[in-house]
Structure formats: structure tokens, C-alpha cells
Amino acid sequence: MPPRSPRRTADASVAVQDLADVCKHLSFAHRRTAYETLLSVAVDGVLPRGALTELAQKFRCHPRTISRLWTQARLSLHDVHHAADVASKTKGNSGRHALRTSDEIEAAIRNVPQMQRQTFRSLSAACGIPMTTIFSHMKKNPRFKARSNYVKPHLTPANVEERLKFAMSFVWPLPGGRHLFNDMHDYVHVDDNWFYLTKVERRYYVYDDEEVTAQAVKS
């Protein structure tokens, strides 16, 4: 076997160094195309000399990336796969791992009373989970959402009668069967809902199988 040309080896080394930091990850489509290209030039499963480096230059990645792709695809054919597995192992295995599972976050949120679930800040302080984690959980879990609740009047028959008497007390009878309504210039009008610090609308972060706490105001 004739010795390799030093010039060719040097050129390959320079090419590898130039491509070392060009592209670290290939998309699935590029990985599939690269494997099919190697498959077209392979003879009995053996690649010709320089095929990996040449293909790496084409896809602007390191030759070891193409080499690992070829090895992974060939090994997957020995398993139960009917097609070569060229998917990247980076997806789902990179980045910081979650400290809590989705079920653990849900259990912690459900243990918080709904009155403390009106904002992310109050919910985070009550359950001990960061607001960013709760927000990410909400995006991934459509069952967890914000729902509004409105104040409803809580009137008994006695309340209705008292209110009617109070309203009729401002109607003054006049001669001739006529009536005059009190101008109420000597009264101060106050919204009793806000006077007693009762919000008309409240928003809670709950799951779809949870009932929002009913609000009823009796005056």
C-alpha cells in the first residue's frame, strides 16, 4: 500500500481545524441527507477514503460529527428499527434538568388556598416555587389557567323587603296624588363594595377541574 501524501494529510488537517467551530449541531433534515449521501457512496457498508471529511466540508461541521452519525445509523439497523436512526441525541438531553416534575408542581399548587392564587407572586410565595417555573408550567399544561369570578348579591327575602322600604322612604307624597323624590343633596354616596374593600372581580389561577370560590356580598 503506497504511503499517504504529506500534503494531502496537511490539507485535511487544516480543513478539520477550520471546521472545528463552524457548526456544532445539524438539523434532522441535514443529518438525514448526510446519511443518504454516505449510503450512496459506501461499498458493502465501507466508506471510501476522505468521504467523511468531504461531506463535513459540505455541511460545514466537524468530520467527527459525520462519523458519529454514520456509526449511529448503522448500529440502529441491527436493532428492531426498519429505518436508520439519524436523530440527534442532543434534543431533550441538553440544558438544565428540571428540579420538579409537572405532577409535583400541580400538587403544590393545589395545596394553596385559592385566595392566595390571585397573582403569580402570591402563588409563588405560598407554594415555594419560582414564578418562572409556574409560568412555564402554565404554558405546557393547558388545564392550568386563569379564571375570573365576579361578586354576586346575596339577598334574603328580609333584605329585599328592607331595601324596598329604604327606597320608598325617599318618595314624598304631595297633594293631588302626586309624589316627589328626595333630591338627596344631604347624603354622601359611597360604593359599599369598595368601601368594605371587596373587589367586584377577582382572578384565580386554577385547574379546569377545580371550582372557583364563589363571592357573595350581603349589604
Short structural description:
InterPro entries: DUF7769, RNaseH_sf. By secondary structure, this protein is an alpha+beta fold. It has two domains: 68 residues, no CATH class; 118 residues, no CATH class.
- Could you say which overall geometry the principal axes of the C-alpha atoms support? rod-shaped
Beta-strand residue percentage: 5-15%
**With helices defined by DSSP (H or I, 4 residues minimum), what is the helix count?**
9
Encode the helix/strand succession as letters.
HHHHHHHEEHEEHEE
Poorly predicted residue ranges = 1-20
Mean pLDDT: 80
Q: Report on the biggest sheet.
A: 2 strands, antiparallel
Task: Please report the total strand number as a whole number.
Answer: 6
InterPro entries: DUF7769, RNaseH_sf
Protein name: DUF7769 domain-containing protein
Domain DUF7769: 27-76
Organism: Aphanomyces astaci (Crayfish plague agent)
Write the layout of secondary structure elements.
Elements: H1 6-18, H2 28-41, H3 51-59, H4 63-76, H5 102-110, H6 120-127, H7 131-140, E1 144-150, E2 152-153, H8 157-168, E3 171-174, E4 178-181, H9 192-195, E5 201-207, E6 216-217
Parallel strand pairs: 2-6
Antiparallel strand pairs: 1-5, 3-4
Helix pairs in contact: 2-3, 2-4, 3-4
